[in-house]
Amino acid sequence: MSRYLPWQSFNEFFVSIVYFVQGSAGIVGIASSLILREELGLDFYQMGLIGVAATLPWSIKPVFGLLTDLVPIGKFRRRPYLHLGPLMGFLGFIGIALQGYSFQSFFLFMIFANLGLSLTDVATDGFVVEESNDENVTRLQGITQASIRTASFITSFFSGLLIFAEILTPHQMYFIAAAFPLITFFASFFIKEKPVDKLQVFQADPEDSISTESTLAQYQTKNFDLSLFSKGYIISLMVIFTLIILKLAFGQQLDAYLAENLPFISGSYITVILWGSFMAWMVSYYRKLVIMGMASKMIFLAILFILLWRINPGTGSSMFFYVKDTLLINEKTLGFMNTIAQLGSIAGVFLAVKYFDKINLRKLLTFTVLLAALFSLSSFAITRPEYAEWIGSNWAISTLGTIIATPIYFLDNLFTVIISGGEWINPWATASLLNPIEHFLYTQSIIDEMIFMVAYIPLLKLAVLVCPEKAEATNYAIIASIMNIGLSLSGWLSGFFYNYLMGIYHPTLEVSAIEVDVIEILIWINIITSLMCLIVVPFLKTEEFKRG
C-alpha cells in the first residue's frame, strides 16, 4: 500500500499538513485587497508594503534554521518550534480580524503572523531536506507543492464567494485564516523526533522517523564553533530587522517629521542604510557558515540566480483592481479564477515530477524561464480588452474556458443549494454563458500557473541539491530567505514604480488611480527583469548539471 501513498510516516504526513496550512493563506487573498483599498483607502505603494509584511519575516529564515539545527529546546530540535510558530500565526491573524483597521495595525499583525509561519516552515524544511536525496528530492518537493496548491484550490474557491454572498465580511475572513495554524499546532504534538544532547553523540537509527534519519555528523553539534554567533551578533540582526519594520510601518510619519525638523536628513537615506545593514549582516552570516563548514560555496551562485529570478516587479494590486473595476469582474469570479489557477499549479507539479525531471536541470531552468517570460505577454490581452474578447470568442478558447469553469460552477451551485436552499442551475449552461473576456481569463489563469509551477519545481530542486550535509535546515533556509527577499523587493518595487510612473505620465491624477498604460509598462518591466537570471545559468555547477 505504501507505494500508492505519497508519505511513509506521520512526519511526512505532518509535512504535508504544514504546507497545506501555508496554501490556505489564499482564503484572505481577496479580503486583504478589499480591506486595504476600499476600507483603508491605501494606494498601490502602501498595498505593496503590506505585501512586504507578508514576506519579509521569511527573509530571516536562516536564523530560524540555525536555531532549529543547533539550539534544541528540552532536547528537541524541531518540536518546540513547531508548537510556538503556529500559535504566533494564529494570534497574528486574530489581531487583523479584530484590530486591523489601520495601515500600521494591519502591517504589524501581518508581520507577527508571518514570523510564526516562517518559523514553522523552517523547522519543517529540516525534515524535508534531511530526507531528500537525488532519487526522491523531486517527489518530496512535489508533495510539498501539491499540498500547498490543493489548499490554495480549496480556500481560493471560498475567498471571493463568502464575501460576494455577504456571508462574511473581509475582516471576518481572517478568523478562518487563524484556524488553519491551529491544525499545525495540534498535529505537532504527534510528530516523532529523537531527543538530542549537545554533550552526546547519537547514532542514526534507521527505524526512526525522517527527523532522525540522518548522518552521524548531523548530531555532532559540539563540533561547530558557535562562538561565531555571539548574543550581540544575533541581537544586532533583531535590532536591524525591527528598525526596518518600524520604518516600513511608520515611514510617512518619519519622513514628515524629518522634513519639518531635520530637513538635511532624508528618509530615503535611512531606508538605504537600514537595508544595506541588513544585507551586510546576511553576507557576514553566510561567511560564518562557510567558515564553520555549514554552507557550500556553490550556494552563492544559486542565491544569485534565485534573487535575480524573484526580483521582477510586476503589476501588483493594480491589475487586480483593473480587472475588478474596469473589466467589471466581481469578487466571486475573481476567487474562482484563483481556484482554477490552482488546478494549473497541480498540473504543473505533475508535469514537473513526471516528465520534466528527466531533463538536464540547467537546460530545464533556461527553458522554463524563457517560457514563463513569453507567456507573460498574454497579460497585454487583459489590458486591451478587445484582444481578450477576440481571443475569448474563438471557438477553441470559448469551449476550453467553458470546460475549465464548469466544475467550479458545479461546486458553486452545490454550495448555494446546501447553504441557502437555492434552485439547482446547470453548471455547463452557466459556464457557457460567460462573456469572452471571462473565458479568456479562466484559460489564461490555468495556463499561467501551470507554467509557473513547471519552472518553480526545478528551482526548488536546485535549492536542495546545493545543500551540504550537517545543517540542511540552515542552508535551505538561506536559499528560501533569498526567494522571499526577492519577493518582498518585487512587491515593494511594484508599488513604487506604479506611483513613480503615475507621477510622470499622469501628474494631475491621484497615484491610486488605475491607468492601463502604467500597468502595461509594469508588464514589460516584469518580463525584462525575469530574464536577468539567465546570465547565471552557465556558471552553476552541480553533479546534476553535469549529467545530460
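Above is the first protein from milestone M3; the second protein from the same milestone is given next.
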Amino acid sequence: MNILNNTFNTPFNTAPFSKIKNEDYLPAFKTAIEKAKAEIDAITSTKEVPNFENTIEALDYSGQELSRISSIFFNLNSAETNDDIQKIAQEVSPLLSEFSNDITLNEELFKKVKAVYDIKSELDLTTEQKTLLDEKYKGFSRNGANLKDEDKEKLRAIDKELSQLKLKFGEHILAETNNFEMHITDETDLSGLPDDAKEAAKQLTESKEKDGWLITLDYPSYIPFMTYADNRNLREKLSKAFGSKGFKNDDLDNQDNVLRIAELRYQRAQLLGYKTHAHFVLEERMAETPEKVNAFLNQLLEKAKPAALKEFKNLEDFAKDLDGIDNLQKWDSAYYSEKLKQKLFSLDDEQLKPYFKLENVINGAFKVAEKLFGLQFEEIDTIDKYHEDVMTYKVVDTEGNLVSIFYADFFPRAGKRNGAWMTSYKSQMIKNGENDRPHVSIVCNFTKPTKSKPSLLTFNEVTTLFHEFGHALHGMLANTTYPSLSGTNVYWDFVELPSQILENWCYEEETLKLFATHYETGELIPMELIEKIKASATFNEGMQTLRQLSFGMLDMAWHANESPETITSVKSHETKAFGKTQLYPDVEENCMSTAFAHIFQGGYSSGYYSYKWAEVLDADAFEYFKEEGIFNKTVADKFKIFVLSQGGTENPMTLYKKFRGQEPKPEALLRRAGLLK
C-alpha cells in the first residue's frame, strides 16, 4: 500500500519525508483523486434533503487526503525539486485541474449546494457557516457551474492548459537561475565585496572543484555583488543576466508563455461573464474592482513620485560627484544607494550583520511571538525533514497545549526557487470535536554559514524573516472549524497584514534588545546603531514605493486588459505599463514579465497591489500598538482574536474594525514612509 494513501504513523502526524519515494507520488495522487470523487458521489447520491451538514460541511471536509499529498508534493517542488519531481508535476497538474473542474462543473452537486444557498435566510447558521455557504456557492458560480455544456468543456481545456503553462514558466526561471555562473579568477574583480560574500563565493567554487570565485543569480550571491562590487562592468553583466531570465528567445524563453497565460485568463474571465481576469479576481478582494486598484495605485503614485524624483536626482548627483558617472543605470542603483546611505547615516549592512546571527534572529522572532501571543518554540529532532538544513519545532501555548508544528528552511540550494515564502503542510480544522493543529513552514534564501562565520543576516534579511514568520503565525494561530477558511485562507489583499505588521518590530529598540547581540563578543547592539536603523528606515522610500507601484501597475496592465490577444510584444507592453514610474533608462535585453513569477506562476495575478494595500493596514494597525505599547497584551490579544485566529471566517474589513475600532487610514503609511509633508 502506498505510504501517501495511509494514515501517517508519525509523531504529530507529520509528513514522513524520508520514506516517500518519487515514484510514490503519481499513483498516490490517482488513488486520492478516486477517494475524493467517492466522497463527492456520497454527497450527490444521498436521498436526504440537502442541508448545511450533509452538503456544505461534507464538501469542505472532503478530499483531505488529496490536499495533504498535494501540499507535500508541491511544497517540495518549490523547496527541494529535481527533474523527476518536475516531470511528475507536469503529469499531475492536469489531473488536479481536471478533478477541480469535475467538482465545480458537477451539476448534481451544484443543485444541492444551490438548494441550501436558496434557503440560507431560514437557516440558523453561525457567521463562519454563513461565510462557508457563500464561499461554496461562489466557488461554483465563479467557476462555470452556470455555463452551457460546450462552454464548460472550453473552461476545462483552458484550466488544463493554464496549469501546465504556469509550471513551465517556473521551471524555465529555475533553470535560468541555475544555469548562470559568473566565474571570477582575478581577485581585484571582487574589490568592495565584503569578506563573508567573498568566502561564500570561494566556497561555491570549491564545491564545484574549480578555482577562483563564483557569483550566481541566487539572492545571497547576487545582492551583495550588486550592492558592494566596485567593478561596474561586472555589475552590468550580472544585472543583465538577472533581468533577462526567460527573455533570450531560446528553449527557456517565457515570452510565449506570458502572452498565452494572459490570453487564457482573459478568455476564462469572458466565458464566466467578467470583463477581464482582474474583474474576476477582484470580486473576491477588499479592493473589489480594477478601477479601485488603479485609483489606489495612482493616489500613492501622486504622493511618492515627487519624493522619488528628488531622491533619484540626489543619487545621480552623488554618483557623478563620487565617480563621474554621467548616466546612472539599473546596475548602479543598489551600489550608489548603499554608498549614499553610508554617507548620510554612517550605516552599512556590514556594521549591522555581526549583530544578526541567524540563530539569534530566529530566537528574537520566537521571543516576540511569546511576548505578544504566549507561544513557546521547542526545537525537536523526532520528526522527519525533507533536507538536512531544515529546522523543526514544536509550538505550544502557555498551558503546554500543542499549537502547531513549525518547519524553517533558510539556505539556498540547486533544487530550491529564489525568494522567501510561507506555506503549510497540514491545515487546521475542528472536526468531530477535535481541534486538528496545523503544520506550517517558512522557506528563505539566506547566506549559508562559512568555515569561519555563522550565517549573518543583513537588516533586510532580518525583516524578511520576520515577514515570513508573521505569515507563519497567521497559519499557526488558526482556530476555525472549516479547513477552507483556516489560517491564511483569506482575501489576498488581507493576507499580507500579519506578515507586514511583524516587520515593524524589527525597528524598535525594545525588540532589538531581545536578540541583537554581537556573534563574537555577545555585546548588545549599540543604541546609536538602533537610532541609525530608524533614521535610515525612510531612506529612498519614494523610489522604493515607486518600484512596488510599478509592479502592481504591470500586473494590472496584463490582467485588467480588455484585448490581450492584440499584445504581440511582451517587452513593449511592459515598457508602456512602466511609463509613469520609470526612473532608470530601459535595458533593451531585460524584461520583468518573463520572470515575474508572483503573477505568472504564483497566486498574485491581479493581486500584486495587495502588498501596498496591506501596508496601509499594517501601518495603521502598528500605530495602535505604538499608542498602547508595542508588547501591550490587550492590543496583542485583540489582534490574535480578531485577525490571526479568524482566517477567512468573516469579511476582512469587519475583522479589522473589530480589532482597530475604525477603518484603516492611508495617512499612517504616508507618515511612516516620510511622504507626508
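Note on the second protein: The longest helix spans residues 290-323.
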